[in-house]
Design goal:
Distance between the termini: 48 Å
Strand order of the largest sheet: 2-8-7-6-3-5-4
Radius of gyration: 25 Å
Number of helices: 13
Structural class: alpha+beta
Shape: globular
Number of strands: 31
Helix content: 10-25%
């Protein structure tokens, strides 16, 4: 049955700048917010160049893509380009073959968590579940027009048609969602952005990722659609060739930045190129693989593809021995929590592995660490319970605070520890914790990233003045009350050990908890150091020093202070050269061999 649909507009709701389509105004010597990887293939721009290539592909074409694509703009621009070439288009929307809203609701509602405003469970089906695709061939024109079947899932149609895939970075999807210009899969109207995000995370992204992985080897052209009227694109073969090179060499993900109620000023003051009119920056999402991308560059043109494309292409080359356990899911994330001249994070904990599997459909949970990159005197981390904690009393006070808007004397229940540069705090699941104000935290964690159970939020509204939801019940289903008193000091404060040392460099091991599946070490060197991936993907960051040059094979990349970079397992041996006058320190995280 054909449905009336409201298509996305061009608007986005964000103070963050749109990534440019070409290299412009690069600031050297400082953190780069648009890091790119130069490729030998050709990146083209505009719809006219794309349609000229498509004319060689025949009369039937598939325009598939991710949720959030502005399909109305794609149709308008493509029609104009084909018209200029003397061709007409017969457009066929894949949404014409969606199952009824009632059928889709029956399939998806069990995974949406009912009234829970934040959490659901990962959908276990596929994109095929959303469609009835029996009669598509009947609407293909035979009068000489170009037939374009378009929309999310268009490549599900039968036939060996060329596939053009339109992709949108996850940050831009969310910016468009906040502007009311995105519909969820199978929905014909925009909803509240928080409701949309829950459907994105547990339904849309799950099935679209499976679909993208399945068709990835067959994609003929990949289009970066984040600049709706200024697209860049690359052929599928050249994209896959570029990814083959990246799987063996150092690269950076494109970070993105967000304000928050507790956000600070370090990111705004120290990272060039960001919008300085933003109130604060709470996060820099350095490497959250499900949401970050990689920027490719050729001939000064830029094109962003999602990191999962790299894993779909060759997850074994990227993850090495960890691929057996994690498949194409990137296991470790890095992000910054900025509370410098800001405020405390919410008091929180994360779910156990079994709870995560049972309730959210994730394979592993959000085990974290806090690495202190910068701090002011007096900065603290809240971690673990006081020795005399009484769980019932603590819970009653939290619930009373929420109902009566009453302050809680948090330190009566929770321990605090000074937060000094290079300290590492261990936060396995079930641990009560939060960063205090006046710190820049490098959060090194397992990749799952939304499963935070807030117990107390210092009586703050969100940035829109609305109450922030708490998850006291879920927190108390997961809190480990044995992590109290001296147990915290003995087991949750990382200990350092010299692993290797010469006159010029040393490698320091930083202990993690038994429940952490990843290890952390720090390379410290005056001039240079050579290391090996040992068949593990290394996630690294320059945590002291001005800049270093990282050399893998025939590639080299300059890394500045606080930048995160990745060395895939297949890179093998690599060198890091110190480009500054003082000692350089580089943190690295990787999956423990025992956890593979």
């Amino acid at each position: 049955m054909i449905k009336q649909e409201i298509m996305p507009g061009t608007s986005r709701n964000s103070e963050q700048f749109l990534m440019p389509s070409t290299i412009e105004n690069q600031i050297t010597g400082k953190y780069e917010i648009y890091p790119f990887y130069n490729i030998s293939g050709t990146i083209s721009s505009g719809y006219h160049s794309l349609t000229e290539r498509l004319l060689l592909k025949g009369e039937h074409i598939v325009f598939d893509g991710y949720i959030g694509v502005n399909w109305e703009a794609v149709k308008e621009q493509t029609t104009r380009a084909f018209t200029d070439l003397g061709k007409s288009i017969n457009w066929i929307s894949i949404n014409n073959y969606l199952k009824s809203s009632e059928d889709l609701e029956i399939k998806t509602s069990p995974f949406l968590g009912g009234d829970d405003p934040l959490f659901g469970s990962a959908y276990t089906g596929t994109l095929q579940d959303f469609f009835e695709l029996k009669n598509v061939d009947e609407v293909l024109s035979v009068d000489g027009s170009i037939n374009i079947i378009y929309g999310c899932g268009a490549a599900l149609v039968s036939g060996n048609f060329p596939i053009v895939y339109f992709d949108v970075p996850k940050n831009e999807i969310q910016f468009r969602s906040r502007a009311g210009s995105v519909n969820n899969l199978g929905r014909h109207f925009p909803e509240d952005p928080k409701i949309q995000y829950k459907r994105f995370y547990f339904i849309d992204w799950v099935v679209l990722n499976k679909h993208k992985e399945e068709i990835f080897p067959r994609i003929d052209f990949m289009v970066d659609e984040q600049r709706t009227e200024d697209i860049t694109w690359i052929s599928g073969n050249e994209l896959r060739s570029a990814l083959s090179t990246i799987t063996k060499n150092v690269f950076r993900a494109r970070p993105w930045f967000e304000p928050g109620v507790w956000g600070g000023q370090w990111i705004k003051e120290n990272i060039p190129g960001l919008n300085k009119d933003t109130k604060n920056y709470a996060w820099s999402f350095e490497l959250i693989a499900p949401e970050n991308g990689i920027i490719l560059e050729s001939g000064s043109k830029l094109l962003e593809v999602s990191i999962d494309c790299l894993l779909y292409y060759d997850h074994v080359a990227v993850l090495g021995k960890a691929a057996k356990r994690f498949g194409n899911k990137f296991p470790i994330r890095f992000d910054f929590l900025d509370t410098m001249d800001g405020d405390n994070l919410s008091l929180q904990c994360h779910p156990s592995v079994n709870y995560t599997k049972q309730h959210f459909g994730e394979d592993f949970t959000q085990d974290e660490t806090y690495y202190i990159l910068e701090s002011k005197p007096g900065a603290e981390v809240y971690l673990g319970f006081q020795n005399d904690i009484d769980p019932d009393t603590f819970r009653r006070e939290l619930e009373s605070s929420f109902i009566h808007h009453k302050e809680v004397d948090v330190k009566k229940y929770i321990q605090t520890f000074p937060a000094r540069k290079h300290d590492l705090f261990l936060i396995p699941n079930g641990t009560v914790h939060c960063s205090g104000r006046d710190a820049l935290v490098l959060e090194i964690s397992a990749t799952p990233y939304i499963f935070t159970f807030k117990m107390y939020d210092w009586l703050r509204p969100d940035l829109n003045g609305l109450p922030r939801p708490l998850n006291i019940n879920r927190a108390f289903e997961n809190l480990n009350f044995d992590r109290k008193g001296k147990v915290v000091e003995n087991t949750l404060l990382s200990k350092s050990t010299k692993l290797k040392e010469t006159d010029e460099w040393r490698v320091v091991g930083l202990s993690t908890h038994d429940e952490h599946f990843y290890a952390i070490a720090r390379l410290e060197f005056k001039e240079s150091i050579t290391d090996n991936t040992n068949d593990q993907c290394l996630i690294m960051s320059l945590v002291e020093g001005e800049s270093v040059t990282v050399i893998t094979g025939q590639r080299q990349m300059v890394v500045h202070y606080a930048e995160t970079f990745i060395i895939p397992a297949a890179a093998g041996s690599f060198m890091i050269k110190n480009e500054g006058p003082s000692l350089a320190k580089v943190i690295k995280a990787f999956v423990k061999d025992s956890s593979c």
